User: Fold these one by one.
Assistant:
Number 1:
Amino acid sequence: MERRIGVYICHCGTNIAGTVDVAAVAEYALGLDSVLVARHYEHMCNDPGQNMIKEDIKEQGLNRVVVASCSPQMHEPTFRRVWEDAGLNRYLFQMANIREHCSWVTEDRRQATEKAKALVSAAVRRVFYHEPLEIKEVPVNPNTLVVGGGIAGIQAALEIADSEHKVYLVEREPSIGGAMAEFDKTFPTLDCAACILTPKMSLVGQHPYIQLMTYSEVVEVSGYVGNFKVKIRKKARYVDVDKCNGCGTCWNMCPAIVMPSKRIIRKGDVIIKEAV
Ligand code: SF4
Ligand code: SF4
């Protein structure tokens, strides 16, 4: 299929045109392979700018478009809608960022213009090979795995669970809380660490959308985005978790407890902690 490419260079007021010679870039673009139209305009994202492109698509039979303007983060969806309105596949389009990547990072007009030309040339070459794509909907597993039950993992789990999505919170230690559980105060406000942490720990334990898996570790992750499979090893804890009420009597009787990150040895009333 014959490629009929249109190139549009945005001034963005003086954001781009103050540093880049937009007329020179448009003239350069017109000399590139398969480019039929190359224009520069003050604001490509406003209605007259969008209409200019739509008219060219219809009148010149353009089947691919390059816009050299700001970051795609800013206006890629805007321009994709324009192509769709003009009857073109939304993916037969390429943006070249000549603002954040060019005019905003130098005051040297000559160098900025040369870089803008190079970015436009690359975008034209790239759009040449674009194929029309269709949007598909596929089922995804909306459940979330949060690894690590420190304060960050706890907060992430609570926020996701509050939006009514199931969360698996995996913590390798016997309890969630992490390093914050060992602090007295938090920086910089000197708030009581336990006052912040413990209500959140309690919420996690009671939340209907959170499945807490303590003393457990992720051993394998497979699959792909939207459909991951995760293997989790739950370590033996020698108590019936459903029946345990956390009274602590067994803790007092136990001569030694070994945890992954530290070893606690009890000798009479003396507790010795060792890093492993
Ligand atoms: S398209 Fe981007 S670069 Fe052009 S005027 Fe709009 S915001 Fe500025
Ligand atoms: S003694 Fe208390 S803390 Fe230990 S397992 Fe029994 S209920 Fe749980």
Number 2:
Amino acid sequence: MALPRFNWKPKKREQIVVIDLGTRTIKAVKLQRRGDAYQFAGYSILDAPASDSKPSTDLWAELFSKLIQPLGGHIRQVVIALGVNDALLRQAELPMLAVSDLRTMVKFNSKNYLQQELTDYVFDCCIMPPSPGAPPPEPSKAGAKCKVWVGGAKQSLLNSLQEAARKAGLTIEAIVPGLVAPGNAFEMAQPESFAKEVVALADVGFKSSAVSILSQGELMLNRVVGIGGDQLTNGLAEAMSISYAEAEGIKVGMPREVETVLQSQIVPLGRELRASIDFFEHQHDKTVGHVFLSGGSARSDFIIQTLQSELMVPCQTWNATSFLELALPPQQLGEVEQVTAQLAVAVGAAVAVI
Ligand SMILES: Nc1ncnc2c1ncn2[C@@H]1O[C@H](COP(=O)(O)OP(=O)(O)OP(=O)(O)O)[C@@H](O)[C@H]1O
Ligand SMILES: [Mg+2]
């Protein structure tokens, strides 16, 4: 699947390190190319800076250094995947022009093309082929329109990230919207389902969850719903009159002990996901056959089962690294299975650019 990228020319590379700037945890993965195959050579997960204060470039630099340290080797270049609050992704009908012209057009007419005044933004555009696998249309016929995915982020954010990376001795090779990344990883990890089915991918994050609907290999819909793992913990804490930390421990460690009260916190998330699926199904007259869940909350069988009862569609987690040869350090080999759900965005961004 094509991916909107910022200032990015893909080239064949031996190794790629992607940093996924999540709201609760930041993750890094290292992938290596071995002929036609890819190796999973390392990962790292750290707590993100508290969201109530804007972290300084020094703090980001420190976090970047800490994050890449366990990946080993001499890492100089990284790709950054931005979260849903920092990068926008929209589908638009635009005149059939060269991508460089589309970028400029969107930059100066965001209100017109994206229905929102977006100043200080950098955009990239990706023209969608008329059908999956077909070549993108040529910029030719006057008055012709094409379907375009537009990605955008604030120039000021990109500048601070560049500055933080420089302080950490790194160069940022590309900055990509994380929202499309699970779809890229899914194409590699579950090629059959990707090519033949209508599926929803839901990355359940911290304060929000990102839903992508793929129909026979085509990205049909991207939506962000404002519920993630944070609301589940908060709701549980309130309902049980306990602290956030206690509620988090119960949610992660012994969800079945508080089954009824936790289920009632998960129901609103299920309703939001169902609404996105309904919207797609009514618009396209197609039925979503499976929901594949990623993100920290997808580590919980209890959450997946509760969502399945609410959505009435088979729900499962998936392993975004399943198509990679494992070349992890011994200690990570033992732990990786537990964290693959959280790595879907980083792995998806990596396969799109390696
Ligand atoms: N085993 C588990 N069971 C239930 N929830 C879990 C488990 N492990 C992690 N979580 C939850 O996952 C959430 C963090 O998920 P994740 O790391 O995917 O978020 P993020 O990527 O930082 O957020 P975002 O993508 O929204 O920016 C937390 O709310 C945490 O409670
Ligand atoms: Mg995330």
